[in-house]
């Protein structure tokens, strides 16, 4: 006979998953219903605040985005405290966020580590608006953003963003920056792109 988990253990496991899943949190279903009926309103961008509420908004967006890791509220609040975080809203409904790391020195670039937009709000300019909000916090710094090799949409967004700043964009060697600065783990197939707003700063282009 095959091994079977005791019924009590199954119940305990399901209780644990329910308690730690954003899908079971109060208000989540109502938020998803609002996402499915978003009005044709403009995107509104605001700085995230280190509160439980904004940490939860980030958590729920993480749950809706297929390639984003779901984090706890406390983790997200800590991120807001330590980094540059903006939220995107449509008709007072949170639809995405952007996380960036400020440059360590006056000459160091800032790093866009994550742009997350729920599927229901994509192609409405939310990602573009978030990037501009982040860029405005350090207007004299160059910007580094990494994309997956096959993510042509993210690459196109970065190119359009660079053009809107009157800046150049080029691929640079992956070892130019620390993985922790770019916001991904070692071994991931991301490639960094440098958006140069200051012509006197340069890195050697990747060949």
Question: Brief overview, please?
Answer:
The protein has helices at 7-19, 28-35, 52-64, 73-82, 126-137, 152-164, 179-182; strands at 43-47, 84-90, 93-101, 110-117, 143-148, 168-171, 190-196. With 207 residues, the chain is α+β, with helices and mostly antiparallel strands.
- Unreliable spans: 1-5, 13-19, 200-207
**Overall average pLDDT:** 85
Q: N-to-C SSE series?
A: HHEHHEEEHEHEHE
Terminal CA distance: 60 Å
What class do helices, strands and sheet pairing give? alpha+beta
Number of strands: 7
Strand fraction band? Answer: 15-25%
Report the helical percentage: 25-40%
Largest beta sheet: strand ordering: 1-2-3-4-5-7-6
Number of helices: 7
The value of Rg in angstroms is: 19 Å
Q: Sum up the overall morphology in one term.
A: globular
Q: Please identify the oligomeric state.
A: single chain
The major pleated sheet works out as: 7 strands, mixed
Characterise the protein shown here.
- It is a single chain.
- This protein is an alpha+beta fold and 207 residues long.
- The chain is built from 7 helices and 7 strands; from the N terminus they run ααβααβββαβαβαβ.
- It has helices at residues 7-19, 28-35, 52-64, 73-82, 126-137, 152-164, 179-182; strands spanning 43-47, 84-90, 93-101, 110-117, 143-148, 168-171, 190-196.
- A 7-stranded mixed sheet has the order 1-2-3-4-5-7-6, with helices on both faces.
- β2 (84-90) and β3 form a beta hairpin.
- α3 (52-64) packs across α4.
- The chain is globular, with a radius of gyration of 19 Å.
- Residues 1-5, 13-19 and 200-207 have low confidence and may be disordered.
């Amino acid at each position: 006979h095959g091994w079977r988990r005791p019924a009590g253990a199954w119940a305990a496991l399901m209780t644990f998953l329910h308690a730690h899943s954003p899908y079971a949190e109060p208000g989540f279903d109502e938020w998803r219903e609002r996402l499915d009926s978003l009005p044709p309103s403009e995107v509104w961008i605001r700085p995230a605040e280190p509160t439980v509420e904004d940490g939860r908004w980030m958590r729920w967006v993480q749950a809706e985005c297929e390639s984003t890791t779901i984090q706890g509220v406390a983790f997200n609040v800590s991120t807001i405290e330590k980094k540059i975080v903006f939220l995107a809203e449509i008709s007072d409904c949170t639809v995405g966020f952007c996380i960036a790391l400020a440059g360590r020195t006056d000459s160091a670039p800032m790093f866009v580590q994550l742009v997350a937009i729920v599927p229901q709000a994509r192609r409405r300019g939310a990602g573009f608006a978030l990037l501009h909000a982040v860029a405005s916090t350090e207007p004299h710094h160059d910007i580094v953003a990494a994309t997956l090799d096959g993510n042509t949409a993210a690459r196109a967004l970065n190119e359009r963003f660079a053009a809107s700043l009157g800046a150049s964009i080029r691929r640079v060697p992956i070892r130019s920056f620390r993985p922790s600065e770019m916001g991904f783990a070692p071994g991931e197939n991301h490639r960094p792109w440098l958006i140069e707003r200051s012509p006197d700063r340069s890195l050697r282009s990747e060949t």
